[in-house]
Design a protein that fits this description.
Shape: globular
Strand order of the largest sheet: 2-1-3-4
Distance between the termini: 19 Å
Order of helices and strands: EHEHEEHHHHHHH
Structural class: alpha+beta
Number of helices: 9
Enzyme class: transferase
Organism: Sphagnum troendelagicum
Helix content: 55-70%
Family: Belongs to the GST superfamily. Phi family.
Catalytic activity: RX + glutathione = an S-substituted glutathione + a halide anion + H(+)
Strand content: 5-15%
Protein name: glutathione transferase
Number of strands: 4
Largest sheet: 4 strands, mixed
Radius of gyration: 17 Å
C-alpha cells in the first residue's frame, strides 16, 4: 500500500492513525508537498482529480477521501489490531452514525478554527476574528451535546474506542496542542476525559511523533 500525503495534513493523519490502530506497517508514505503545489500536478490529478490529499493505492485500488480510506482500512484489517467498527451490526451502526456527526457537524466548525488559528499564522496571515468567534461559539454549543452524551458513554459509539473517536483526533489536536485554544474541550468534564483518553492512545502518539 501507498499513502500519498504529508504527516502535517489532518486528513493524512486520519489515515495513518487508522493504520496504526490496526497494527499495520506494510505501507509507504509518498510525500505530496502542498507548499510547492504537488497536489495540483498532472501526475497527482490522475490519482485524485480534486487535487487533495491523501490518496491510498492498494494493488489495483486507488481511493481518495480520508474517511473512505479509513473505513476501507478498518474493514480490510478487520481481524487485526483494534476493532474500529465494534463487534456487532448494532455497534457498527453507532460508529457510522457518529462518523456522520463528525463529518457533517463537528468538522465544519473545527476545521475553520484550525485554519485561522494554526495555518493562517504559519503563512504569515492574521486570523479573521469574526470567523474565530463565530465558529468557537458554535463549537461550544455542539460540545454541549457531546458532553451530555459522554456523561453516559465512555466513547462516542458506546464503551469501545472506534473509528468515530479516531476521526475527531487530528483537528482537535491542532486546536488544543498547537493553537492552545482548547477551552471548549477542557472546560467540559466528560469531553475532556474523552479527549485525554483518545489522545493518549499509543497509535496516536506514534503518528503524532511524525
Amino acid at each position: 500500500m501507498k499513502v500519498y500525503g504529508m504527516p502535517y495534513s489532518t486528513c493524512t493523519v486520519r489515515v495513518l492513525t487508522t493504520l496504526a490502530e490496526k497494527d499495520e506497517e506494510g505501507y509507504e508514505i509518498v510525500p505530496i508537498d502542498l507548499q510547492v503545489g504537488a497536489h495540483k500536478s498532472p501526475e497527482f490529478l490522475k490519482l485524485q482529480p480534486f487535487g487533495a490529499i491523501p490518496v491510498l493505492q492498494d494493488g489495483n485500488l486507488t481511493l481518495f477521501e480520508s474517511r473512505a480510506i479509513a473505513r476501507y482500512i478498518a474493514e480490510k484489517f478487520e481481524g487485526k489490531g483494534t476493532a474500529l467498527f465494534g463487534k456487532t451490526v448494532e455497534e457498527r451502526a453507532l460508529v457510522n452514525q457518529w462518523l456522520e456527526v463528525e463529518s457533517h457537524s463537528f468538522n465544519p466548525l473545527i476545521e475553520p478554527l484550525v485554519v485561522q488559528l494554526v495555518f493562517a499564522p504559519m503563512r504569515g496571515k492574521e486570523p479573521v476574528e469574526s470567523v474565530v468567534k463565530d465558529h468557537t461559539y458554535r463549537l461550544e454549543k455542539l460540545l454541549d451535546i457531546y458532553e451530555a452524551h459522554l456523561s453516559e458513554n465512555k466513547y462516542l459509539a458506546g464503551d469501545f474506542f472506534s473509528l468515530a473517536d479516531l476521526s475527531h483526533i487530528p483537528y482537535t489536536f491542532y486546536l488544543i496542542n498547537v493553537a492552545k485554544k482548547g477551552a471548549a474541550f477542557t472546560s467540559r468534564k466528560h469531553v475532556n476525559a474523552w479527549w485525554e483518553d483518545i489522545s493518549s492512545r499509543p497509535a496516536w502518539k506514534k503518528v503524532a511523533a511524525l
